[in-house]
Amino acid sequence: MTSRGKVLTLIVILGFVALLLYNTLSAQRVECQICVEFNGGRNCATASHSTEKDAVRSAQTTACGPLANGMDQAIACDNTPPVSQQCRVP
């Protein structure tokens, strides 16, 4: 492969990586930290998403993971209001 071909290949690869990075980061516009108390335990989690509602839901599900045993408790924990909630736009 010629030197010119190597440079062109490198430019194409870097462009593709930049596009993937841009698409990944631009979709996550809101970051929320949620703390949940359930079954006598407390856990906090942070999640980011394109909307605040989705970021809150994702953080709550993640925070409930270690606190809930089984699907029934996971659903009950997800329906428990968070103890604290902080959202920001990075």
Residue ranges: pLDDT <50 for 5 or more in a row?
Answer: none
Spatial sequence of strands, sheet with the most strands: 2-1-3
Question: What is the molecular shape?
Answer: elongated
Helix count equals: 3
Gist?
The chain is of the alpha+beta class and 90 residues long.
Structure commentary:
- Strands 2-1-3 form a three-stranded antiparallel β-sheet.
- Helix content is 51%, strand content 26%.
- It is elongated, with a radius of gyration of 20 Å.
- With 90 residues, it is of the alpha+beta class.
- The mean pLDDT is 88.
- It is built from three helices and three strands.
- A hairpin with a 2-residue loop joins strand 1 and strand 2.
Keywords summarizing the entry:
90 residues, alpha+beta, 3-stranded antiparallel beta sheet, elongated
Topology (elements, then pairings):
Layout: H1 3-27, E1 30-38, E2 41-49, H2 52-64, H3 71-78, E3 84-88
Antiparallel strand pairs: 1-2, 1-3
